[in-house]
Amino acid sequence: MTDQNGSSLTGTFQQRWDSIMDRWTSSPEKDSSFPSLTKRQKALLGQIRPEVLAGNYMILATSSRMAREEAETKMREHIHNVFSRELGIPVQFSINIKSDDEMEPLLRHTEHTHEDHQDELAEEHARGYRPRMDAVDREPSPNPSNWGHMVSPSLARPEQSSAQRRDTHPAHGTHSSGVEVAQKHDGSRALFPNHNSPETMSSPHPHQAGTGPSAPEGTQHSTDSSGGENMLINSAYTFENFVTGSSNQLAYAACRAVAEYPGAAYNPLLVWGESGLGKTHLLHAIAHYARELRPKSRIKYVSSEELTNDFINSISTGAREDFKRRYRNLDLLIVDDTQFLQGKESTQEEFFHTFNALHQAGKQIVLSSDRPPHQLTTLEDRLRTRFESGLISDVQSPDLETRMAILSRKAESRNLQLPQDVKELIATRYQNSIRELEGALTRVIAYCSLGHQPLTLQSAEAALRDIMPDDGDTEITPQLVIDVVAEFYDLSASEIIGKGRARQIANARQIGMYLCRELTDLSLPKLGAAFGGRDHTTVMYAERRINDKIQEDHKTFNQVQELTQRIKARARN
């Protein structure tokens, strides 16, 4: 079913699923080797569809919360035993709730539809069925005693027994729970001082009284055990709201598997793909879900830029041992944008030893990059070899069906009904980046809302006229954006990238950062460097702030539209 790297043979898996389910739900006299099912259970199983098999892990989907609850509680052992036997590997599974539209491509087109059992389900709905929230709204926590049996022979580390693997996940005493975040060392205050996560809603953040910008909606902070400053983890980046398709199914399944069973099979896990395709969303989702399942586990999410800064600071302050303690006593280390470790020899040296310490202890390592390891040409060979030793999974540009699903999900989150022709317009014009896709939707909504116009194909075309992808090979660089923005606001380019905090300068700088995110494919760290060597979280905040402003302020929306026109005209000339 899978190769050693966990490559999913999705079509074969779906066919096997259908064959197994047909045999299982047939009359007992036809095949008595399966556990017996009630009519109700057969009907519920008929509402569950396979998405992908990655290694030993099945990702399933249904639009019925009733089906999900029943499968994950009363039928979990039966499903596990049946599919482990039939597939020849000890499988585990999780079930996603999807809308009817999202389920459409997964629906079975066979004659065996369990129609005889649907009346019983209809009666339950009529009686006011309410699922148990603990079974529906979160996945059941895996039993650590089963971790050693989760790994297929080709993926298990022979030198480490299942008992040893279980011993690598102890309770952690005085260590703080939750997601550990990188410490800032530039002496500045946290960029996102206000935070609305449920864990700290009752008490203000220590920096709230300051004059720094407030946190973007949907971010949450976690404090590391060393008392360092906080870094945002986006609470909107969860597995539940990640839209899957053929371009990202394996990466999604692998990320979910390592969150549930860290250190068991895919270690390290490296997710690669171009900017704007959802890698960071998946990495944040791992951190959220792993923390939800094991609140006492020690987790750190960090960008390679912050890892480098942290290491440099540890040298300058004589705190190397503290650095080692904070990075090597983790249960889960997530490092984003590892391509930026290239050329940083001292950081690579330290990360190599950190990697080895965690890996040998059976701790999970998750990495992301904008290219596969063999293309990281200036990365040390021994570190590249470590990156290649686990599962490497790519995320590709989403296909039309996935882009349509993303737009539908985003519109639903804003309580909007997006007309089909508008959805098709955006999805067909923006094919390469999810960020561009969502940015186009934001502009359409802002254009119609601020102009008090109906959401139609004509208004969408008008809103997107200035940012439609060009047919020619025009190149837009951060410097071009900075120059045009500076001229527009009667400022100098040096003021845009400088340290000035006057309102006019700060606003122009944030609009410039927003436009760079819209019009270029550069990563957050690279854009931060272009704007005077700023931290990537500054760019992230600016993008969120201007994105909100253009939906509320007509003047800002018009300025962004005008600047987009000028930048594209300058690029063509």
Automatic annotation (TrEMBL):
Region of interest (Domain IV, binds dsDNA), residue spans: 449-573
Stored InterPro entries: AAA+_ATPase, Chromosome_initiator_DnaA, Chromosome_initiator_DnaA-like, Chromosome_initiator_DnaA_CS, DnaA_C, DnaA_dom, P-loop_NTPase, Trp_repressor/repl_initiator
Spans annotated as Disordered: 112-229
SMART domains per record: AAA, Bac_DnaA_C
Gene Ontology MF terms: ATP binding; DNA replication origin binding; lipid binding
Domain Chromosomal replication initiator DnaA C-terminal: 477-546
Any GO BP: regulation of DNA replication
Compositionally biased spans, kind Polar residues: 194-205, 217-229
Domain AAA+ ATPase: 265-393
Tagged with keyword ATP-binding: yes
Region annotated Domain I, interacts with DnaA modulators, chain positions: 1-156
Domain notes: Domain I is involved in oligomerization and binding regulators, domain II is flexibile and of varying length in different bacteria, domain III forms the AAA+ region, while domain IV binds dsDNA.
Function: Plays an essential role in the initiation and regulation of chromosomal replication. ATP-DnaA binds to the origin of replication (oriC) to initiate formation of the DNA replication initiation complex once per cell cycle. Binds the DnaA box (a 9 base pair repeat at the origin) and separates the double-stranded (ds)DNA. Forms a right-handed helical filament on oriC DNA; dsDNA binds to the exterior of the filament while single-stranded (ss)DNA is stabiized in the filament's interior.
Protein name per the record: Chromosomal replication initiator protein DnaA
Naturally occurring in which organism (per UniProt): Corynebacterium anserum
Encoding gene, per UniProt annotation: dnaA
